[in-house]
Amino acid sequence: MLVNRAAVFPVIFVLITITKIGTGIPTSRPTVTNYDIRDAILQIVNVIRTTEDKLERHEYRERALGDQLKRGLSFIDKRVKQFEHFKGAITRLDERLAAVETILIQKEEKERLQSMKTFLAVDDIQKNLPLVMDDLKKDILDELSKQIERIPPPPPHPKPEITKTDFENLRNDLIKKVEKMNNSIVNLEKELKKTRADKEACEKFNKQIASNLKKIDTQFDNGKDLLQKYEHKLGEYKESTKESPAQLKEQADWQENFLKSLNEQKHSIADILSGVGNVSTKLNTLPKNDDIEKLNESTKNLVKDLQNSANVHTEKVIEVIGTKINDVKTKIAETNQEVKKTIDDLTNITKNIEVKLGENYKDIKTDLSSIKKTEEITIHTADNVLDTKRRLEYGVHQILGEMGQLMKTATKDIGETITDRFDVFELSVLDEENGALSNLTHKIGDDIDQVWRQIGIMHQKMNANAEILSKLQNQTDTYVNGSSDVMDNMKGKVAKITSKLMELDENLNYLLGRLMLVSHEFSQSKNGISKALDEIKGTFLEVQDKIKDSGPGPHKIDSYEEPDVSPAKK
């Protein structure tokens, strides 16, 4: 509109001057000269040139905007196609995680049942040991009393065939058996020390987890900073679509880096899944329920063999005493006292064994309670981690790298612990001691519980990572939708600009037509003015010729002419 006004003013000025010239011929000199007309024409030419420059600029901007829109749409289409692959990968990850969850839950239930069976077997052994010892004591005393009652009057003293050496041998056998029991108790204490050492190792591992959680918090803060930078870059991208196309290169580079980070996350997730597969294969190599039941049956059979051997030895002693009782009447009181002493020693030993077993059982209970507390602490920390992770909206590609490293180290530690436990288990199986087998079953059950707890924590972390990936996908979808909306708005603006340019073209065409008419009229007026000026010059010359002083008369008069007389004089 300003261009039209600037172009109209000189045209109006020219028309006004032409009308003034046409209305009347001035007496002194004309008000409009050729210089004024030239200046007006130059102004019109300048206005036309400025309008042409502006039109060229608008066309250049339209071309640049069209190129930017084409590039942006092609780039967005490529990125949308690339993100479609992630949907399939995420669904596969969810399916695999669900399968791993089911396997872990089944194995946890099996291990709990096995541990319950082993605990019940140990409780039965603890309850039945004093009863068995009391029954043996009663049977021995009853048999001795019966044999004493059945003894006939003593014949003449023959030479004693059973000497003190035989009783000493029996005593030594009993002492050896007691020493074996003490050795088994010592082995129990060693195993308890090992469990305490494992507990300390678990505490160290929990400390490492706490430090890693602190690192993750710092990384979460870095993720927030990245989100702010991403929003800032989006604002710059919106401004760049309006102002300059040069910033598209930086945006493309940043998006390429983002895609590279996503590919690295893919590889890290694949490594994590391979680690989980290795852990599952190692867990499949653990001893099954059948093996543990076989071990329990072997321990029960060994206990029964011990009972039978004890019964056989008592029967043999009774038979020897029955056959040789006539020869040992004189020394029966001493032997009875020695037997009573040995029985008292056995009762004291059994009581000590029961006390030690009770103390060890209390220690095991305390260890289990402490392990439960550590499990609760780890679960609480895991909940805190999930709460902090829910606050994040972006930054997964940095966290997954360190999580992958932690998973690798954790799987290595678990593999090493499992191999160590299996080595100890093999050594204990080859050992001839009977008590070590039950203790090893307890220890293996505790270690497997710890391993399953660690795997459960790892599984929770994997679920959290899957949630973060889903959030990231939703964010990318929202950003893509926002960019499409921006592109739609840009299309509307471009359509408005094109409509305005069409109107401007129409106005310019109209203005050029008017200018052509004005120039034609101006040329006609110029020709008319030149003719009028020539006529005026001719009239002025005639008047000058008539007005010339010819001096005093007489004057020759060719013909009679009436003088010009004004009406006022008449």
Automatic annotation (TrEMBL):
Residues 171-205, 289-352 form a coiled coil. The keyword Aminoacyl-tRNA synthetase does not apply. Residues 546-559 have a biased composition (Basic and acidic residues). Residues 1-24 form the signal peptide. The keyword Protein transport does not apply. Residues 546-570 are annotated as: Disordered. It comes from the Eukaryota. GO terms for cellular component: plasma membrane. Keywords: Coiled coil, Signal. This is Uncharacterized protein.
